[in-house]
Amino acid sequence: MSIPVIDLEGSLDVGGSGAARVANALAQALSTLGFAYIRGHTVAPATTAAAFAASREFHASSLAQKQSLAINAFHRGYMGMATSTIVTSSVARVTQPNMSESLMVMHELAPDDPALRAGAPMQGPNQWPQWLPDFKPRMLQYQREVDAVARHIVRLIALSLNLPAHALDHHFERPTTFLRALHYPPQAVGPDDQFGSAPHTDYGIITLLAQDDSGGLQVRPRAGDWIEAPPMADTFVLNVGDMLARWTNNRFVSTPHRVINRSGGDRYSLPYFLDPSMDTVIECLPTCTDAMNPPQYPPVRYGDYLMERLNKNYNYRRTAADGEP
């Protein structure tokens, strides 16, 4: 089995026949494998290149500089090597931490944003490396462009589910977004349960991943073995998250994936996660159920689901929850 390629060209008018054609192809990919390569998108190659360059510059900074941006209670900032263990994985018993480091940037909020001022969960300030003045503008530009693609894909998903193209837009008026600048060092042969990123499924709606030329991403289809998701020039890797699987009553598949960096060099990737507002209640969409196919999950508030996963999988949150220094 190979990962299908979906070309967005001709789909920008969500009311046109081109959009319907692409939506059908997208639905086929997401209901069988849960993964697809996306090409024909609107993110400029120069924007992606600049974001990767910024990530490499950040990770080449001293450990003291990076640790000065230690991840805060709003899940923004630097996560050091081996500080996350995916204990909530439904596809493997994970005992070893991920061999990666990253800087997490979430949705940017204005200083006078009411949720920020109230200290609401996940509504806090991003942390930027002031010693790299080009980092913030490069990352924000990348975030803007990839977010536009992600929102377009959500509209194509709505069409594929026999909903109006903009039927889901209101859930993303105050979205929860994550842009993660990831670095995986070279990984020698070691324990079977040591990964750059252990087998897992994503929490939310969709992920758009830009990866460098190192390879290492693997996907496990249903009732199948692991397959490679090799780099493909000027594409994103799209995958379904757990919340979209629940929203669609498992019509779309949240597929396990992992990273093993055997390239012999450093690996960099830029996953972007587009999720709904924290208050969105995820329950079976009306076109995904009928008398023969009742809802398989109870409704769940996205923010509650997210916080449970974060609290279990990240060292800094478990430490805080235990009341340790």
Automatic annotation (TrEMBL):
Cofactor: Fe(2+)
Keywords linked to the UniProt accession: Ethylene biosynthesis, Iron, Metal-binding, Oxidoreductase
Superkingdom of origin organism: Bacteria
Catalysed conversion reaction: 2-oxoglutarate + O2 + 2 H(+) = ethene + 3 CO2 + H2O; L-arginine + 2-oxoglutarate + O2 = guanidine + L-glutamate 5-semialdehyde + succinate + CO2
Family according to the record: Belongs to the iron/ascorbate-dependent oxidoreductase family.
Protein name: 2-oxoglutarate-dependent ethylene/succinate-forming enzyme
Pfam families documented for this protein: 2OG-FeII_Oxy, DIOX_N
Pathway recorded for this protein: Alkene biosynthesis; ethylene biosynthesis via 2-oxoglutarate
PANTHER family in alphabetical order: 2-OXOGLUTARATE (2OG) AND FE(II)-DEPENDENT OXYGENASE SUPERFAMILY PROTEIN-RELATED
